[in-house]
Design brief:
heterotrimer; A mainly alpha (359); B alpha/beta (360); C mainly alpha (304); B: alpha/beta; Rossmann fold; 2 domains; C: mainly alpha; ABC transporter involved in vitamin B12 uptake, BtuC; 12 helices; 69% helix
Chain lengths: 359, 360, 304
């Protein structure tokens, strides 16, 4: 009989060993699945994990990793504050959409005026504000009515998706778009474009924002009083109460941080890589970021690595589709497995496995 | 990654050099396909993949095809296309309207790679566009539907209010009215290309409201099943033949047949004769297939439908031939006048007689 | 514009069919959440049930075996979630999301080769005499058996939670797992069973889509129904009969929306599309009884 015994302190060794072990197990099991599908397992694993970084065309795919990971990291960092404090915003996807719509609306309101110094910063503010506004709804309802924020924030994702479709069909529709739904391309409008800062580096303003967020989050959690409050509230809400932490204020701030960063991620995406508001420009970054936040154990550096790893499986997975004809479904399965194993071995950091009966 | 702003045009070779990438030499012609859905969707992507398989069958070892499925429109599509081009693809088919700008962006970086974008309107030296005149098939459907209906109510499940769908509605309506002046259309917008449950609901609603013919511009077979369950309702296959529902309720179908075009264009690349073109083919060139008209259709109707099909195919008849008025009664086409392709491509209004508004 | 073309009787009857897959899946999730577990992987379990049920039906020719296989498939997948969250104490939100990703991939792989095949028909039950009663007959008595299974499931769950001892224990575990543990109940065993039940129900719901409503296999065919099921559980504030009402309202809005369109009444579709979700939030706020089970989503580990 196996039993788990809580460690007095999380194991330092397992903190680092667990993710590596998970990746190794995924490679073995995933390789077996690929072999069952009649594809060369070693080559598939190499294509997914190695080729995007070191392969023949890595000089193209490396920057792409940053582009894909940027929004994931930015959103996950925001979410990690609330998750640490026991506040569950799982509606980042909706906040991302509203942030993007607010920013796109702001940018297009000025079209075709040339004033990048004004319009681009305004769009960032609009993105932040849009995301915050959308996150403030569950925060307010939680504080005022004790409504479960997991469910409200999730419901608001669907509402945001409906607003998005309506915007693409009506208000933000490109008048020169030959009757097709979708807005003008913001990345081709010089006042709103979120450009690459260094050519072929993949680094655009959103990636920069993500890295900045990682650094800030690290210092806030390690050094600032707010970081202490967050950790305390997560570990023991009662103790936090005694220590004078205002629970309502904490909820509000955590939700606004996560909503704001998700909204900002939406802004950088709509002004850059995605370019235009369409009926379904969201590709699930908000949900994937939840997984990234947990994979990174809610630690800023961990999230940075987890975001890059997640991006790697997307890009490597595409390469495996192209070069080996691996079905897209196999890649999805593989990603799911990776997450399962990461979550599974994670238990080792805070618990010790004991064989035989306790007592 | 908006490289286009840095490399205005024709600088693809420079990009390759900048990225330090080797140009890959190869014998086989490599053809890439970017799919918006899964190849198992039984509709749009399924038929494009059949086109891919036809290319493989036609050229055997001389070609190699690669594909990526479920590629979201936007930056992901741009990345997949770039990876294909880097991987040595000579010709890339991008099979969704939303891939338009990604296709042009990637094409600008790889001037030696040929691109074919489905259903779009922007071209470049190495970007062709192609689409099918599905409205020709809709004319045949409208003709059959107008003859078959007893309740004089024909249901139409629309996906999104875009020109392609609006053309289809107009074309079907014009030809249904031609054979049956009492016919009216009930149009329901599902706001999805593919959601079997919702499509089933839409079909049921139309049937409950008295429609005995249901046309669909969404891709699943759910409306067929709903019609079968209701009995005495006629439907038409969409995108693929949906022959498993023949002879009733499915009495005919519009089949997206991309195979001849894909084979022809691949051949052009192999021969070095590829040029950028705008292709809009219909029944005549086989891009739009009319599925077998089943025995549930009376023989005389079947014969006249086939005659209509053949006259469209030969070019003798155009489905949008005047006199036609717009919905508000204003004149659109004079007697004998034929709609020009430009107007049709951006069609955003109903013809006279259709009730209801296009959602905007 | 023609309201008269909408037949309210048929509308109600088709609404019952439209709501069935979500009723089945939501009923399972209700039990899971009542046991204090939040499994966001409903969509993944539904689609897995859709394909396992479809394969079994096509292979054996019997839709009943198909539904059984769907329940097994859904429960099997849910066991993965149960193992991770209950034994390895992983976070439920993240694990549930991963389960959906995994289920979508798995089902598409399993379904290769099953595209475009028609499933054997699932006959309707026409109860003689009763189904001839005007108005009520067509609404209540002209459906396929799974519609009644869904209704029976709701009644069963209601009875189970309200009157059975096991239901009481399940609720105790969901409200306060520490206390339940202290009373000597096997929290983890009960939760695993609840999770498997939830998976089985989700599997049935998925199979209803692939075997009855469409009926065919296509990748990703549940198209978000699992997420709606999650919303309805909340809308119902974890009560079985309210769940039924919620599912009919959700199904009803969709069907009504299409009915209005077909009747030529111009309505802004997008606002109608978001209305059920806003209604759910309002219900959450307004119903003081709409309190979530106390231990929902929290990790349980028996410390000794």
């Amino acid at each position: 009989m196996l039993t788990l015994e809580k460690r007095p302190q999380p194991s330092k060794a397992w903190v680092y060993a667990a993710p590596i072990l998970a990746v190794v197990i995924t490679m073995i099991v995933g390789g077996a699945v690929f072999a069952l599908l009649g594809k060369p397992p070693l080559e598939a694993i190499r294509t997914i994990f190695y080729d995007p970084i070191f392969g023949e065309f890595a000089s193209y795919s490396r920057p792409q990793l940053l582009i894909k990971a940027g929004p994931l990291i930015l959103i996950a960092i925001g979410l990690s504050f609330g998750f640490r404090a026991g506040i569950w915003n799982i509606g980042a996807e909706g906040q991302y959409i509203i942030g993007a719509l607010a920013a796109a609306g702001t940018g297009l309101a000025f079209y075709p005026m040339e004033a990048r110094w004004l319009i681009f910063p305004l769009m960032i503010i609009a993105g932040l504000a849009g995301g915050m506004l959308w996150a403030a709804i569950p925060a307010f309802l939680r504080i005022r009515f004790k409504t479960n924020e997991i469910l409200v924030s999730l419901m608001l994702v669907y509402v945001a998706e409906a607003i998005q479709a309506s915007m693409a069909l009506n208000l933000l529709r490109n008048p020169d778009g030959h009757g097709f739904p979708g807005s003008r391309n913001l990345s081709q409008y010089s006042s709103s474009a979120n450009l690459e800062l260094i050519s072929n580096s993949g680094i655009h303003w959103g990636v920069l924002a993500a890295v900045t967020a990682v650094v800030f989050a690290y210092f806030i959690l390690a050094r600032h009083r707010f970081g202490f409050d967050v950790r305390l509230a997560g570990q023991s809400p009662r103790a936090a109460g005694f220590a004078g932490v205002d629970a309502g204020r904490l909820i509000f701030i955590c939700m606004l941080i996560s909503g704001g960063l998700a909204g900002a991620a939406g802004m950088f995406e709509i002004a850059g890589p995605a370019g235009r508001v369409s009926i379904d420009f969201n590709v699930g970054y908000g949900f994937t970021a939840i997984i990234v936040a947990f994979l990174g154990r809610l630690h800023p550096v961990g999230i940075l690595i987890a975001g890059l790893l997640m991006a790697l499986t997307y890009i490597g997975g595409e390469l495996a589709q192209l070069s080996l004809g691996l079905p897209g479904a196999a890649i999805q399965l593989f990603q799911g497995m990776l997450l399962f194993f990461l979550l599974a071995v994670d238990v080792m950091t805070s618990y010790r496995i004991r064989f035989g009966k306790t007592e | 990654m908006k490289r286009r702003t840095l490399l205005a045009s024709g600088a693809g070779a420079a990009t390759m050099a900048m990225l330090g990438l080797p140009a890959r030499a190869q014998e086989k012609t490599k053809v890439g396909f970017v799919f918006v859905g899964p190849i198992g969707d039984g509709g749009w992507t399924f038929e494009h993949n059949n086109g891919r398989l036809a290319v493989e069958a036609a050229f055997g070892d001389a070609v190699e095809t690669v594909y990526a499925e479920n590629v979201p429109e936007g930056p992901d599509a741009e990345r997949v296309m770039t990876q294909m081009a880097l991987g040595g693809a000579d010709l890339i088919f991008t099979t969704s309207f939303g891939y338009m700008e990604p296709t042009l962006n990637v094409a600008a970086k790889f001037p030696n790679v040929k691109f074919e974008h489905a259903t779009g309107y922007m071209r470049a030296d190495n970007v062709s566009t192609y689409s099918a005149r599905f409205y020709e098939g809709r004319a045949v459907q409208g003709h059959i539907a107008g003859n078959l209906t007893k309740s004089n109510k024909i249901g139409y499940i629309g996906s999104f209010p875009i020109p392609e769908v609006i053309r289809g509605i107009n074309s079907a309506f014009i030809h249904a009215r031609k054979v049956n002046p009492d016919v009216e259309f009930k149009i329901v917008w599902a706001f999805t290309w593919f959601d079997p449950a919702k499509e089933a609901d839409a079909a049921k609603v139309l049937i409950e409201q008295g429609c005995d013919v249901v046309l669909q511009h969404t891709d699943s077979t759910a409306p067929q099943a709903a019609a079968q369950a209701a009995g005495n309702v006629y439907t038409f296959g969409q995108a693929s033949d949906m022959g498993e529902y023949a002879p009733m309720p499915r009495v005919s179908s519009i089949i997206d047949n991309w195979a001849p075009y894909y084979v022809e264009r691949t051949k052009a690349v192999m021969d070095g004769t590829w040029t950028s073109v705008d292709t809009w083919d219909g029944i005549g060139r086989g891009m739009v297939g009319i599925g077998e008209i089943s025995d549930a259709v009376p023989a005389d109707v079947k014969a006249s439908a086939e005659a209509l099909r053949d006259s469209i195919a030969s070019g003798a008849y155009h489905p949008f031939t005047g006199p036609l008025n717009k919905q508000d009664g204003s004149a659109w086409l004079a007697d004998g006048e034929v709609a020009d392709d430009g107007t049709l491509a951006g069609l955003g209004f109903y013809v006279e007689g259709i009730e209801g508004d296009i959602p905007s | 514009m023609d309201f008269s073309s909408i037949n309210p009787i048929l509308l109600l009857a088709s609404l019952m069919v439209a709501a069935t897959p979500i009723i089945l899946a939501a009923a399972g999730e209700l039990i899971v959440e009542r046991a204090g577990v939040l499994n966001l992987g409903v969509e993944g379990m539904m689609i897995t049930g859709a394909i396992t049920g479809f394969i079994a039906t096509v292979t054996t020719g019997s839709p009943w075996i198909g539904f059984a296989a769907a329940a097994v498939g859904g429960a099997g997948l849910s066991l993965l979630f149960g193992f991770l969250t209950q034994f390895l104490l992983s976070n439920q939100v993240a694990t549930g999301l991963a389960l959906t990703l995994f289920g979508l991939g798995l089902s598409a792989l399993l379904g290769q080769g099953y595209n475009g095949i028609k499933a054997p028909e699932f006959p309707k039950i026409d109860i003689p005499v009763i189904s001839d009663i005007p108005v009520l007959g067509p609404i209540l008595c002209s459906h396929d058996p799974m519609v009644y299974v869904g209704l029976g499931l709701i009644a069963g769950i209601w009875y189970f939670l309200k009157y059975s001892r096991a239901g009481l224990v399940l609720r105790a575990v969901g409200e306060n797992h520490e206390a339940a543990h202290a009373l000597g109940y096997h929290v983890i065993r009960i939760r695993i069973l609840a999770i498997m039940f939830g998976g089985a129900c989700a599997g049935l719901g998925g199979a209803y889509i692939s075997l009855v409503r469409v009926p065919q296999w296509t990748d990703g065919m549940t198209a978000g129904a699992g997420w709606i099921a999650l919303a309805i559980v909340v809308f119902a504030s974890w009560r079985p009969w309210r769940l039924l009402i919620g599912a009919y309202l959700f199904g009803g809005v969709t069907v009504l929306q299409l009915n209005l369109q077909a009747a030529g009444i111009a309505i802004p579709v997008e606002y109608l599309a978001m209305s059920p979700y806003i209604a759910t939030i309002l219900v959450l706020v307004l119903m003081s009884a709409g309190r979530a089970p106390g231990s929902l989503g929290k990790i349980f580990h028996a410390s000794r």
